[in-house]
Fold each of these.
Amino acid sequence: MEMWFLRRRMRIPWTAKKPNDTVLSETKTKRALINKIRKRKATFFGHMIRRERQEHLVMTGMFMGRRGRGRLCEKTTDGLASWLGVDSTVEMIKMTRKHDVWRGMIANSMRHGTG
């Protein structure tokens, strides 16, 4: 998702067969842009998890049914957990309940540029 945003921001069409490495090396403010995307993703995730409605189930991937064929998609929770420096997604979901702690984790990750 981050690469899709980055390519859109740089106006690189999907038909251009550029690998991700060259796209990342071409951006001057790639780290600032990626951190801004991650911050918005993390704040939205915290908002959805605290609501505890149907969106909560979709964001965490806990709904009934069979998995589709092919390779597993990367989960939003896994990417956020690695960026925030949390060991497990369960621990991260517990942290979203405490709004001040969650905002502090996001601010700390923005400051230190982890991930």
Note: Helices lie at 2-10, 20-26, 30-51, 54-60, 76-84, 89-97, 99-112.
Amino acid sequence: MTALDTLVPGPLSLAGHRLGTPQQAGALTMVPISGPAHPGFVPPRTGLKLSRVVGYGQVELTNGAPSGVAIVPLHIGYIQDHAQNHALCRSAFLAAGQTLRFDDACCVQESQGGYLTGGDQWFFVLPAELRARALELRGVHGYSKLWADIAELNARYGLPRRGHLEQILSRQRPVLTQFQSRLELQPGQVGALFFLAGRFAGLEIAPDPAYFAEMWAALVCFAYGAAAWHAEPEPPPAVPYDAAGLAGLRGALDRDRSGRIAEIAGWLADAPAGPVDVQEEDRYLDLRLSTVTGPHLAGQIVTGGDRTVYASLFAR
């Protein structure tokens, strides 16, 4: 489980990236990815801020760093008190000091008034079940465009059928944030593979470990943790290891770990593959932001020459 270069076709070369030891928390399995770090990129929490909600479906983000380009994470959203919560349908580039207005944002909190002008906020990434639809709606104006899908997701989760994403993100936050501690971020980690109940769910790659560390909670708790919480299996019965002494126990643990790695390697081999369409959306110097769509996969990637700088790809 070391090569990733053949996982995704097209221009997304993952040469130099390697898979680490898998970790599992209930229905969610995370395989850490290490790889080359690309300097000059602003982390999303310390450098990128939601500066203003202009109106329903219209938000402004600012790169407040003195230098470096910010890659706006795909499907990032913001929760704030006494104001309308929004999420973005697409990624973008922001130069140092630049403010960019997104007129195709989606409101994720039906029938809650108020606009933000500064103040406390925390960000999330849209749950996996909403991401394909949100990507389809990039460029479409209409603040309520995701409400029906959010209401349907809430209903599947056994919650009131309303276009209020905070029913999952805010009210279930204490449960969802447990994934942040149950799965351990690794030193030097720049990305991760996520599997839900044994099926490929997503691939996330960041420019460097600092960027990925600031995305960690949003991804593991909300983008993938929400679906894992909904699919949480009953805990298996405890089966003691049949081992005599410390050496025998270590051997049993090694065999268990090897079997687990082989199982996940099978999941990776079984991940749907095939041709995808790659559409360039934006440029910044030598960087290219593109949308990837296929029958099995969707998302956005940032490449610089033959380098993969950023990727957020999810199963359809």
Note: Residues 18-232+245-315 form one domain.
Amino acid sequence: MDSTATVASDRLSQLNSFEETMTGVKGLVDSGIKEVPAMFREPPAILASRKPPLALQFTIPTIDLNGGVVYYKNQDSVTRRSMVEKIGDAAEKWGFFQVVNHGIPLDVLEKVKEGIRAFHEQDAELKKRFYSRDHTRKMVYYSNLDLFTAMKASWRDTMCAYMAPDPPTSEDLPEVCGEIMMEYAKEIMNLGELIFELLSEALGLNNSNHLKDMDCSKSLVLFGQYYPPCPQPDHTLGLSKHTDFSFLTIVLQGNLGGLQVLHDKQYWIDIPPVPGALVVNLGDLLQVKEVTF
């Protein structure tokens, strides 16, 4: 067996051993490891490219939604038009923007973060019943969706729940966070519909419900990412470079930061967490729809 085949065989063996534990990256940390395993180690050039030059002071646009969906219909035409213009400009130039004053209570945002963390930090045996890569299930938990296909694994564990259009029951979700996940999903669905209205108007469409009528806001998948403490954070990534395959992604950041976006296809820009803010990302499917209008 040549050296390339040997390396591939060793890597597959590592991946299988890791998968069989059903405890993810959190399990590695709990075992007391002092070094990042080879399967997670990114090449130095990849890691270096993620560090923005100090001279760059870019920030993604922040859009005030003036209370969100509850007040949107009653806003004066000037305020509404200003919102539409800002969201259109941000979508065209960045593909990303932050929204504040969006109408989702701060305590809901904090509770869902606490709930996701509680799920990942609970006893491993309680999580194992959800460990699966079968996405026909309402709720799954795993480490790295692309574990067996990516060049390197990322330092994260993920819970994934399909919240709409066919919502899960309480029995489908973890006891530790199921209730707040349901509440958060309802809030996000409302916010998503508002953003699709604004985007429809920004695109110059005659009907503000155009994107909603195309079922762009029909489904919702909730991902709860968890990044355990890393013994060698300069050797791996929590999440590798990617685009989202959705119409729209709404990101609720944790308090530690680490989220970056690629601007002008060359600059990685940090997005520091802002209390109460949500980051909106135009996904691949929405960009395809825009091209066809």
Note: The two ends are 54 Å apart (CA to CA).
Amino acid sequence: MRKFWFFKGFIFIVGFVLLGGFVVMSLWNWLIPVIFGLGTVTFVQALGLLVLSKILFGGFRGGHWGGGCYGGGRQFWKHRMAERWDKMNTEERNAFKQRMRNRWGRWDERKEEKAGEA
């Protein structure tokens, strides 16, 4: 079942990159030659521009959505989950762990030990 979701995610990412390259190429070829008198770009050049703009303006850290006061999406969700975990009693925590085991497989025992120490 995991292979299916991995494959589906891979297809989604490839499709997103191809669509992004096509959009960049189309917009460049539509606007830039008319406005600035520069030449048109190929699809591969458009992908290069997409990567370059990601490096210059976005970085590769990810999680830029949902920044809020926590500084990024991942930290926001981590903080939110920590709040939920603190509000759970022992029964609810054990039920949550069991749902995670059922859904994702073996629970990492080291994570349980670290959570107990904190």
Note: Residues 2-36 form the longest helix (35 residues).
